[in-house]
Amino acid sequence: MTMTECNTEMQSFPQQVIVGILVPAGQMGQVGQVGQVGPACQMGQMSGQMGMGQVAPQVATFPYQAMAAPAIYAKPEYVYMPQMAQLAPMPADGSSSFPVTPRSPQRQASPEETDTATTAEERLERPRLSTSAARRMRRKRAAERAAQAALEHRGEKVAPLSAGRVKSDSINSILENMDFLRSQLTSGITDEVQKALVTIQGHVWQLAQHALGCRLVQLALETGCHEAALLTRELHGHVQEAAVSPHANYVIQKVVSTLTWAASSFVARELVNSCARLARHRYACRIFCRLQEFCGNRDLTLQLIDELLVEAEDLCRHNFGHHVVQSVLEHGHEKHRKVVANILKADLLSFAKHRNASYLVEKALSYCAVEDQRALLSQLGRTDVIVDLARSQFGCYVAKSLLQDERVNGQEALNRIQALAHDFARTRHGQRLLVEIGLLQE
């Protein structure tokens, strides 16, 4: 049989899978005697034993019946067929004699899905946080996102701030050896201190943003070495970001309070034109307080306070801004105290009853110029005003200061309050005032 006739014969069985062994032409006469050629599996006989297009790998051979002509394939009397994987159907054009088993695609879980699954398992095992702990965690993550967004806006990439998972291997090594580095910095041995400073060098900004790393940087700055001052160069350009960071703000405060003006002046320089905004921030307001305490007479610091006091009236009432104004009264220049005193005198009774501004009224009575103190006392020292302040939740603190001030004749006001003691005792702040001025036993 020629190859063309063979192909024609094979195409006449579209529902069969044929396995044949081609016999060399010189041995065709022996086929009838030996009868050992590859079996073919007819679909009709094996439909109960295997699916369409399945082939057995091992088949017993059987002698063939007498054949009229040489054959390429023959049908066995019995074939044992084990279960096999399904094969692809043979192409209609007969281009391939052996069908190929297709691979069923196996979907691989993506890293994101794996991480999600792991995270879900960890959540099941993780103990439930208390309300306060969860609140602190939310605040911490919000601070991290804010700092991350600020740095991405500048085209930089930074690791999470307070989670402790810093990407750099060097940073991880520093954090792992925190205790050893701390012992080196506090040893007082010059060589040991120098080794620790060299280890920190190049990672100051990343460490400053870390909950533990910021403490190490502060300790390095406290050594007072020239090399420690050089570390601050890595903070240049990051002052505003550090000022609003829950960790790096402590590093900036340490720079101002520990190093010389030559090494720390960059802090004030980078705050210019952002004072009013940063003075209202929970963390950044501390930087202005440290500048007032340690660098209050420097021209750059005076420039910052000039910029701040443009919005002094609002800052006096602000939850965080009033701390900066209080620092101006305690440590600032006389001209700046004068500005604050004039603002307070413009609406003194309202400021004296305010939650935040009442502290400033008390400080102004102690730190402002003598003439400004007299002007304040002329308004606040009257008996009716003192009694009115004593009824207020926050004004009662100012009333107590006035009653204890030797410059105020407070006996009449004290008698009036004693006569109204029953009314004052109805409120918690009234009871506290009566106890503090000695009109009520605890």
UniProtKB/TrEMBL annotation:
Database matches in SUPFAM superfamilies: ARM repeat
GO CC, one annotated term: cytoplasm
Pumilio repeat boundaries on the chain: 234-273, 307-342, 343-378
Domain PUM-HD: 94-441
GO molecular function: mRNA 3'-UTR binding
GO-annotated biological processes: nuclear-transcribed mRNA catabolic process, deadenylation-dependent decay
Residue ranges with Polar residues bias: 94-111
InterPro entries hit by this protein: ARM-like, ARM-type_fold, PUM-HD, Pumilio_RNA-bd_rpt
Region (Disordered): 90-151
Annotated keywords: Repeat
Protein name listed in UniProt: Maternal protein pumilio
